[in-house]
Each structure stands twice: as C-alpha cells, then as structure tokens.
Amino acid sequence: MSRYRILSHTADTGIVAVGATLEEVFENAAFGMFDLMFDLSLVPPEEECHVEVEGDDPAELLVAWLSALLTEADIRGLAFCRFRLEGLRSCCLSGGAAGSAAARLILRGPPIKAVTYHGLAVEETPEGWAARVIFDV
Amino acid sequence: MDFRRIGEVTWELAPEGGMRVPGRVFASASLFAKAEADQALRQVANVAHLPGIVEASFAMPDIHWGYGFPIGGVAATDVAAGGVVSPGGVGFDICCGVRLLASALREEDFRRRRVDIMGELDARIPRGLGKGAVAAKRLLDEVLERGAAAAVEAGFGVPHDLERCEERGTSAGADPGAVSARARERGSGQLGSLGAGNHFLEVQVVDRVEDPGAAEAFGLAPGMVTVMIHCGSRGLGHQVCTDYLADMGRAMNRHGISVPDRQLACVPVLSKEGEAYLGAMAAAANFAWANRHVLAHATREAVAAALGTSPAKTGMELVFDVAHNLAKVEEHRVGRYSRRLCVHRKGATRAFGPGHPALPPGLRDWGQPVLIPGSMGTASWVLRGLAGNPAFATAAHGAGRVMSRSAAKKTRGGREVMHDLEAEGITVRPGSVSLLAEEAPFAYKDVDAVVDVCARAGLAAPVARLRPIGVVKG
Which domains are seen in chain A, by residue range? Predict the structure, then answer.
C-alpha cells in the first residue's frame, strides 16, 4: 500500500497519508511532504535532525511535527528522506529525520512554504490511521 | 450556495448562519462559474464570520480556492469595535508582491542581446531551494526594522526608488523582537532570492497603452522593455505565520472567538497577541520589500553586464512595487463615518485612488499603480487605482489559477511547455523544467478577463498591457 496519495487543490497541494498506527501515519505524512518536492529514492540519509513539538490534539501535533521538519530542512538546506517518531503522547512528540543537501537535487514539485490547518484531519480508519493535510506552495 | 447577481459583475451572498456581513464577489458570469468549481465561495462565506468585519467579505475577480481565506479575499475589521487580525488573511508569504522596472531598451534591443541578458539574469538571480542569496546575512536586523530603506543604505538601488514603493518600502510598526529565532535563521541566508513555484522574474514589452497620461506618469511607453519581479518574504515570512498561527489557536479560546476554519484563527487587533503578530508581520513585510529591492538591484547589474554598460545607463527606473499579501490599518469610510480598519488583502492589491495622501507627488493625480501579473506566456497588466473603489481600495493580484498542479502536469510536460513558450518568442531560463508544467499558461484564468472585470467593477482602470519575452523561474 502506498504511504500517501495526492489531494487535488486548485492553487496549493495536499496529501492523505495512511499508516497502521498513529506513529506510522505521522512518519508517512512527513515522507509525503518531502516526496512532493524531491524524488526521495535519490536522497541518501547523510545528515540527521531531532525535533520536539507540542500540540493539543493529534491534528495540531501533526501540523507542529511537519512544520518543525520544514523549518529544519529550510535552515539546514536539506531534503529529508527518512523519518522516525520516538515518542508520541497526547500533548507532545519527539522524532527525527535524516536527509542530504537540497541544493544538488532537482525539484519535482514546488517548494512547500508551510503546513496549513485548512481541511486538516487525523482519523482512525478500518485499516489503521489516515491524515489529511494541505500545504501552501 | 445562494449567491445572487446584484450587478453586471457583482455577486452577493446574504448573511446566513454565523456570517456577520454578506459575501460579495466581483466576477463576470464565466469567472464566477470557475469560482463555483471548488471551495473558494465557501471560503468567502467563512471569512464573513470574522469578529468586527464590516461591509462585506469581498473577493476579487481572480478568486480561487486558498486555505482559510480564498486567494483574492479582502476583509476589513473595525479596530475600535473588537475587530480582529487573522494571520490566515495575510498568508504564509507575508508581503508577497510584485515590482516593475522600466528600461531604456526597446524590444529589438532585447532580441539582439537576448542570450547575453537572459544568461546574466540566469546567473545572478538565486532561485529554487538552498541556492543562496544576493545580500549578506549581516543586513537582517536592519532590514527587519526598515525594509527597502535599509537595503538602499547598504548600497542596493538608489534612494529615489523608495518613492515608488508602496509604504516607501518600509512597513510601519515593525517589531523585530517579535520575530522568532527560527524565523530569523530561515531568513538570514535568503535576502535577495526568488524562491520557486509561482514566483518569477519576467522580461516584458509594453505592447498596448490604454491610458497614455497615466502610462507616461508611471514611466511607461509603447515598445519599452520592462522587468517584473514576483516574490515575497521567503522562509522568514513563512515561519512568522507558522509561529503565530500555532499560538492563535489557544489565544482565540481565551478571547472567546470561534471560526469555521482553524486556518482563520484570529485575535482582536487591540490585544497583546494581535499587536505582537502585527509587529512581526510588519518586520516580515520589511524583509519582503527589501528582498524585491535587492533582486531589482541584481537585475540592473545583470542587464548592465550583458550590455557592457553601467546600471544607471540601462534606464531601469522603478515603476512601482506593490504587496498582495498583507494586513494594514487604514482609514476608510463605512457608512457615514471614517473608521480605522484592519484591511486584510490575501492575494489582492491595494489600489488607492487619485489624490490619496499616501501616493508620491508624481503619481497623486493618477492613482496608485496596480500590478497584475499574468502567467508565463500570457500578458501582465498595469492598472491605476480609482476613487470610489467599492472594496476598501483593493483590486485583483493576478490571473488566478483554474487548474490544479497535478492536472496541469498531466496536460503537458515541462519540456513541452518550454518549447511552446520558445515558439512564441519567450526565452525561458527555468531552475527546474519539471516545475514549468505546473505554472503553464493553461493552468491560469484569462488575465485580460480579470482586468476587464476590475475596470467594470470600478476596482482599477487599465493603463498598459505587458507581453512576456523572457522568463526566469525557480
């Protein structure tokens, strides 16, 4: 099963990420976000980062997690390809990502500026979990 | 949704549910039908829920589905009556906007030196991700405080450029202390960079003048080569919006505010959180004014290098610089009284009419230049603001997308789009060929139709039409 599918949006872009667990859907949403910009099969996991974020519910936590990864990637000039959630609680999470320099990669989609709350959803499904998120590009 | 046509190009939704004012859209029948195709009209209704909103939740003729606000959305809230500021009404790319440079070149001059000019622009305009920037990191503090004025002092451009910038290139009330360390880190290496997506630098030629008096006052003439730059506040602005949106969810609860879309999170302008956001937003806007200013400087140097002359001899005078993602406190008449309003323009351009005191003396008789970029391969327009504008002195900001990015890619590949443009005499220097497909002309509405509605609705009057001849994209 694919980790995510692309949502159609007139101006921006979005994904529905899926996973067997809430942790997995968070990791797959992060994968989907960077996979929209780069062909992640070409990105080696050379540099790592660690993030810790807070949020009042799973949806807020998802935005905080994805936003923190975008910020790290922008500041360090990286494209992330691997994601690992270490601790997910109702109020906060910690996790890591690994990737390599973005400047030497070809963009296959527009750079994602930010993660929006518009149409945001994190839901349990018969197959596991699904997260819907729209990005500003 | 029950929008009724109340004028030739005006559609209105009466308040329903929690809407505090009507929704009002300026569009022809065909543009309105395009807006009906997605969630843009629902977003017009959602914006009408904002506390303190006055008159209507407006949408410009280039309206399309955004996040929270529609792109092309305009909302003014009454500051003294508990009116709110909503970061979603500004967007992540704070003070994204457009700058237009005139030149002493004619189209035939460009055609003769096309390869040299496009080559220099290609080499000197940083774009894409992680590709560096024109200006040094040490300028950041000054730029957050004073915008384009700080860039001029650092040797970019010339002082009289500032006359031709909205707000003179400096947003008042900037509070660099309200900008997070992470936002500063994101912005520090990006001052003087274009980004990617729908941002561009375009070489154009004035192919039609509709209003010769205004065109002359703006510094435009038929056959003149111009350069248009479209970009914003880069990662710094994106981070400011991200930071404040995260905080505003909780702040909204403290103020007892609820909105139909979390992306519309808002707080009263006259609150600790509202003032902090507006201070940070103005600092990010200053980054954007300076960013376009630095890129314009690099453009002048690139053209001069290609022609073997000095930047001053290129005749590249600034026509104007406008923002189209910003919230500003302005005085406007509401009913019989003048009120201080927080005017949100999300994908919409300020368009002050003739005589407005904010305009520089040389433009005051004509109204503010309004810059409406098309897409690659289609025209862009210069308009002028009009007295009696029905939407708090606001006009459209672009052609407006009509096709999703994935649908555009399926319609035609990046290399095909590049060939199409070259066949039309438009030289393209893309950072990524693949991205060209997403920004292809067929993904956008007809910009001429958008401008026509602006004119018929009294939003702004056409001055000159610009045809693209060269495109630099991320």
Answer: 4-136 (3.55.10.10)
